[in-house]
Amino acid sequence: MTNTVSGATVGGHVVQADSIGSVHFHQPDPVPRPRQVRAPHGPFVNREPELAALTGALDRLDEGEPAIVVITGLGGVGKTELIARFTKEHRSHFPDGDLYADLQAYRHQGGVDLAELLAGFLRALGTEPPAVEAERFTEFRTVTAERRCLFFLDNVEHAAEVRALLPSSGLVVVASRRRLPALRTDGAEVRQLGPLSAAAGADLVRAWLGAERGTDQELAELVELCGGLPLALNAVGSQLLDRDRLAVGRVVAELHDREGRLVMLNDEEGDLRPTYDLVYERLSSEGRALYHLIGVHPGPFVSVELACAVGVEQAREALNELRAVHLLDEVVDDDEEERFRAHDVVRLHAYDRTRELPNRTEILARVVAYFRGRASLADRAMGARLRLQDPSGEGLPGFGSYAEALEWMQAERANLRAVVETAAEQRWHGEVWRICESLWPLYHNRKHYQDLIATHRLGVESAQWDNQPNVVVRLRNQLARAHYERKEYLLAAEQLARATELVPLVTDRLVVGVLYEMDGLLCLADGRPGRAVERFTLALEENRGDDHGETVQRYHLAQALIADGRPEQALTVLAEAATRAEGTEDLDMLMKLPLVRARAHHALGQLDVAVTQAEACVRKARELSQYPKEAQAHTLLVALAEELEDPDLAERSRARLRELRP
Hints:
- This protein is α/β, with parallel strands linked by helices.
- It is about 60% helix and about 5% strand.
- Helix 29 runs antiparallel to helix 30 (about 645-660).
């Protein structure tokens, strides 16, 4: 059958109607295609065999099999540059994106936090990671089964680290100082990247300087003195470029005259201290101050904001200067602030230059104070909650929204953990527990429970030394919450019991309230909703007069009432909570309350109202980037849609759930 419409012939049925207003077709959110591997820097020479090995791996991908290529070599030999160049030239072979992880940023006390690393990969691929860390590994394999991505794992030390991170499909490229021969049993091709030869190194330098500067002998000596390492040659060569009258021979003579040795990471690294000493001494005073910050700062990233807070004058110009001589690379994050990272060979040299610095401790104290202040500002930008410390961060950049504050915390996560650990080593107890208290919204919202447990153990110890029983109880309660979220209920109960022992010393009744709240959650998990109602009622009494506290406890109380078969009473409690949350603009609770209302209406058989409330939760959760809560709302919507026999609603929620947690 055919019909003619406006002069065109079409097949199938045609329905003619009067004005029908607007028609909306639901379009699924685009699937993210991350591009995380940095762009290559400048000229590139003498790496044809290794590029061929990487290119050859594409053939295995075309056959539908995952591939692994391992590039090993000394620090600064150019492994990252090689992989960056390959990625740029072959990006079209990875339509679903390229992802980067520096395992050194996730390495703590010798081990790598692989679950947290995978959480970052999952988010980059548009999936909210499961709260249970063990589930992230299977989730990652599910997400990557139908995608063709490149995964660049940098600074790997052990084959087991790679095996835990293997996707179901795609190319995995590994950079390591260690040879990692065991990965050959996993089908990996292992290639060792050696230092540049004298000829190749000279070609690299001439690519910057031109053919007229430096004799063949001078360039060969320069390459030898830099150990054939492109990283060192880049640093020296950039300064030659900045000074047209600086002769190559003079640089070579200065390097020959220097004494001393810095063992970078192993004895094979060679004597690079003279090379970097020369680069350092030609920096401006501002550039040297920033280099001192790199040597003192325990975390991997620096920023303009941090440099200014520590006292580096003309911080932006200093950062540009260090970038120009290849001492810093920019880091790509989801927030708006710029961050830069020094190669770890550079960081070791910077550390060596600052070990005897008279004001080293003062610089470190400023670094810690900066992160304590900004963490406090970020925490307070994310809404009202119980806080035991006074506000701090005056004079530091603030945050305009909940989402902006959360993304800053996420981007600075490695710095924040390193600063907590270093402050604990320095026995700066007040700084330790204050930073820990401020980090709760990051750890709870993004499910970084391994970080929470590691930092909060230090926070509890520091609060004990600082004679802060209120804080000890508060931090132990947050430790209990982390174990509860990981379904480690016995460990949660142990922390709760240890916190309860200190109740006679507690002077803030809100702190006692959080203990009742935690006990109520454990009662719900244990299948005792009646007991949970009692505990949340006690928590509510302890929070009388505190707007946020009362709202939170009514939220929990309503959930316990629903579990106890009293949904009508739960709706009354929720109405009181909503009134208070609206009056105080409590965004977090205004996002959470509709989901509990939806569950109450579901229990009462009021399915249409339940759908409306669950959809309200979805909208607010997406505004705040609260993806775990959005996933909970969509899970309820699927169940409601099945009862209502609404396949369109069910498919929309299932599609979004596949994006959040396939």
